[in-house]
Amino acid sequence: MQTKVSIYKQEKRWAYLFVLPAVLQFFLFGAGPLIYSLYASFTDWNVLFGVRFVGLANYREILVTERFWKAVYNTFFLMLGTPIGIACALMLALALNRRTIGSKLFRVIYYLPSVSSVVAISILWTWIYNYDYGILNTLLRMVFGVDGPNWLYDPTWIKPSLILMGVWRSFGATAIFYLAALQNIPQVYYEAAKIDGAGPWQSFWRVTLPLITPITFYLLVMGVIGNMQSFAEIHVMLSNGGTEYSGATIVYFLWQKAFQNYEMGFACAVAWILGSIIFILTLLQFKTMRHWVYDGS
Amino acid sequence: MRKVSNRLLILVSCILLVLVTITPALAQNPITITFMGHGHPEEHEIFTRLIEKYEERYPHVTVNYINVPPAEYMIRLQAMVAGNQTPDVFYLPAGDLMPWADSGLLADLTELVANTDLFDEANIWPEALARYRYDGNMVGQGPLWALPKDVGPWALAYNADLFKEAGVPLPDPDVPWTWDEFLENARKLTRGSGNDRKWGAAFYTLEAAVWANGADWLDETKTRVTVDDSKFIEALQWVADLRLVHQVTPTREEEQSMGGYSRFINGQIAMFPMGPWDQPAFWRLPFEWDLMPWPVSPNTGKNATWIGSMGFAVSSRTKNLQEAFNLAAFLALDREGQQLNYELGMAVPNLIDMAETGFLNMDKPPANRKEFLRIITDYGRRPINEYTYDNEWIDAFWQGVDAVYAGRKTAAEFCKEIQPEMQSLLDRAIARQEQQRQRNR
Q1: Which one of B197, B398, B402 would you mutate to disrupt binding with A, by most A Cβ within 10 Å of its Cβ?
Q2: Is B139 helix (H, G, I), strand (E, B) or coil?
Q3: DSSP letters spanning A129-185
Q4: How many CB atoms lie within 10 A of CB A235?
Q5: Distance to chain A for B348, nearest Cα, Å
């Protein structure tokens, strides 16, 4: 008995030791800057001039800044990509789940964009969207005989273009999650459904869909968090936030303030507002989860 | 005899003592200075060579040269400032001068320039230095905060072959066209269709039109946005109409799918604005090209364009001010470096005598390279954002002006609409400057 306890104690010590680097990393590189940025958001900190406390001035100014609200609108618009991406990924996963020839190859192909660099993908899509020479407009012209829009310059089309690219980029990885979830559903459920006279559609609607809601929930939460923070593709594909600022996101606005205008304190305040928005959205999702996420009970 | 030898001994000892005391002072302590910039491989090579030369001349100094990608440069610099590791010498874009000078992070170079024997101040283009002067209120006057890396006159090039094909006489290097002549000739030069399509001009530089027409983005005090001025509106509409009405420049869509630069290189565009840094690429062109004076506005009879620049600033935190300044002076103004620069087609020399002799007599195009110098001395101007604390106010203009170029709004509608927004952003920039000034007091 004595030895068991001491082994347990020893193991515990080792466990803490293993956890320590991650904890240290968090406190040094995560929590430290986090707390400082909260403080900085109440100052006029700007790398060149040092720090002076200004109270709520930054927050007040953000709320009356037109470009901030434009960025908020754009960011929420781009979030439409999350449900679209999830729906596409589910369809893809259902297709890949069939044991057809080459399904493994397709899994690899669809997953590739997720492991490619955002910058490379953004450059690729800049070419796809090119008005004259882009493959997309060429196809539209050849197949439908219509002139496609100027995707990345027309204020109406900038956001849909970004959404389309975002969906393409992420749905391979999302599909992998769904594939795992689909393969985890015990066959007995489908057999039982069949005995009860359910067709394929009913099996999908009543068995598959409810049983994969935990994964859907996870993907939704992560997707919203990720999409709220889009930046790199906007920086690469659009200049200055796009025509009439119609592609700029909150993080892009923040980046401009921090690194082009030297207004770090202001940018920190924007970051905290963004953090709060993400927190509230995530909280809402958790609050509503019991209404639609199947937890096995 | 003994007395004499005793005295000799004392004398020798004294000399030895003096020598022992002063020798370490004579041999200077080795020091290292850091220099950060961004540049393409040729520039990096030239600077490496110049730094070697500098280290030979000042053997006690070692230079740590950091070259970062241009897009990362300002972010990296800010991080270094925040981490108290400001490089001793670093690139400073002219447009960033005001906040940097106010921050106290830059060393005042006025005295050092007056006392240096490395160059003669009178031999540097006055405009090249003036844009790095700032008295806490206005750029162009007061103490000097940086030395010019280059002067970049934005000139107008033309494809002589296309002119000959269209039967348009080559522009006179000494007599500028008027806008009307420009348009008339551009019409003649715009021909063909499909892949053989040729355009009279690439998109016209808006600054060149606005300034030539006697207008500007800001008033003289640089505190009021004047884009709603009728002369401004007229110039903007003229530029937009070159595309929308007269169709002598590629459409907005064509421009965005392949820029004017590529189309000029392909021999599809007759007149195209260029900087001196474009020369190496243009030397490889299969057609004949040259520079022409920017056209004059019929309202003023004047022409205008902008001159770009990058500066070498010295950190006020440096422990080795003189050595850091010497390095900046070496990189900016050393004769060998300046010669390499222009021979490689990277820049117009900062040194007047060199520009007017060696540079002017080069046997490579453009034949009318005098136009570069004319822009520097006669009609080139600083970009307008160099007069303000930040660029947000002018960014708002550039973000919105596409509506005019696309024909969704007239110049008058757009300018009247955007002026209040620009003014409020400019007021904010001025308020920031004022806050800083108070803090400095």
Answers
A1: B402
A2: strand
A3: T-TTT-HHHHHIIIII--PPP-TTTSHHHHHHHHHHHHHHHHHHHHHHHHHHHHHTS
A4: 20
A5: 28
Q: Is residue B93 classed as helix, strand or coil in its secondary structure?
A: strand
Distance CA B333, CA B345 (A): 16
Contact A49 B436 (CB under 8 A): yes
User: Do residues A274 and A251 touch, judged by C-beta distance below 8 A?
Assistant: yes
Flag if A150 and B103 touch (Cβ within 8 Å).
no
Q: Which residues of A54-73 are buried (b: 16+ CB within 10 A; e: fewer)?
A: beeebbeebeebebbebbbe
Q: How far is residue B38's CA from residue B324's CA, in Å, rounded to a whole number?
A: 18
Residues in chain A: 297
DSSP state of B409: S
Amino acid symbol at B305: T
- State whether B392 and A49 contact (CB < 8 Å): no
Q: What residue spans define the domains of chain A?
A: 2-60, 63-292
Q: Buried (b) or exposed (e) across B287-302, using 16+ Cβ within 10 A?
A: ebbbbbbbbbbeeeee
For B375-399, the DSSP string reads: IIIIIEE--GGGGSS-SHHHHHHHH
Total number of residues shown for chain B: 441
Interface of B with A in 252-291 (CB under 8 A): 252-254, 256-258
Buried b (16+ CB within 10 A) or exposed e, A260-287: bbbbbbbbbbbbbbbeebbeebbeeeee
Q: What is the DSSP string of A43-108?
A: B--BTTTB--B-TTHHHHHHHT-HHHHHHHHHHHHHTTHHHHHHHHHHHHHHHHHS--TTHHHHHH
- SS3 of B234-285: the string is HHHHHHHHHHHCCCCCCCHHHHHHCCHHHHHHCCCEEEEEECHHHHHHHCCC
Of A47, A66, A131, the CB nearest to B253: A131
User: What are the two backbone dihedrals, phi and then psi, of residue B291, each rounded to the nearest 5 degrees?
Assistant: -105, 145
Domain A63-292 CATH superfamily: MetI-like (1.10.3720.10)
Rg (CA), chain B: 26
Structure ipTM: 0.76
B174 C-beta neighbours (distance < 10 Å), count? 10
Residue entry with tokens 């000034």: B437
Say whether B199 sits in a helix, a strand or coil.
strand
Distance from CA of A150 to the nearest CA of B (A): 7
**In chain B, what are the domains?**
31-151+309-333 (3.40.190.10), 153-307+382-440 (3.40.190.10)
B427 vs B422: CA distance, rounded Å: 9
Tokens 């005899």, residue?
B1
What string of pLDDT tens digits covers the 441 residues of chain B?
A: 455 566 666 666 656 555 555 544 445 789 999 999 997 777 788 888 889 989 998 999 999 999 998 888 988 998 899 888 999 999 999 999 999 999 889 999 999 998 888 888 899 999 999 999 999 888 999 999 999 998 999 999 999 999 999 999 999 999 999 999 999 999 999 998 877 889 999 989 999 999 999 999 999 999 999 999 999 999 999 999 999 999 999 987 788 778 889 999 999 999 999 999 899 889 999 999 999 999 999 999 999 999 999 999 999 999 999 999 999 998 898 888 888 888 888 889 999 999 999 999 999 999 999 999 999 999 999 999 999 988 889 989 998 898 899 899 999 999 999 999 999 999 999 998 888 878 776
Judged by CB atoms closer than 8 Å, whether chains meet at A262 and B99 is answered as yes
Q: Which two tokens stand for residue A239?
A: 């200049």
